[in-house]
Design goal:
Elements: H1 15-52, H2 58-94, H3 109-114, H4 122-130
The structure holds zinc ion.
The site of zinc ion has 8 residues, from helix 4.
Amino acid sequence: MNLPPARSGEDPWTPEELAEVRGALEEEITALRANLADAESGLAERLTDAVANAGDDPTDTGAKAYQREHDLALTYNSRDLLAQSERAIERMDAGTYGVCDSCGHAIGKARLQAYPRALLCVVCKQREERR
Ligand SMILES: [Zn+2]
């Protein structure tokens, strides 16, 4: 497996360090998939409830709709995080992990250990946030 590039001034990656980051991402992927499966079955149940209780007190229906929206938002976030984590693993396999998507320079070891899903180096990230 290719090791990601380190930034100048950083120690080069070791296979152990990369394995650690990868292991953490893989654990997260497993947890996110489980959460999503739960959330989806919960949502399906509540949707059925909402239909069954269509004649209910409107306040109650409002609370349920709110809960459903909350669940949906969580599901979207988890899905997003899951996709990003999977992408990071794919990049490790492809040997492009740790290379900035925008400028092609090293994202840096310290940054990836803190944000293993980072696709941009700090400079490009800041530029993007300013836009
Ligand atoms: Zn960059």
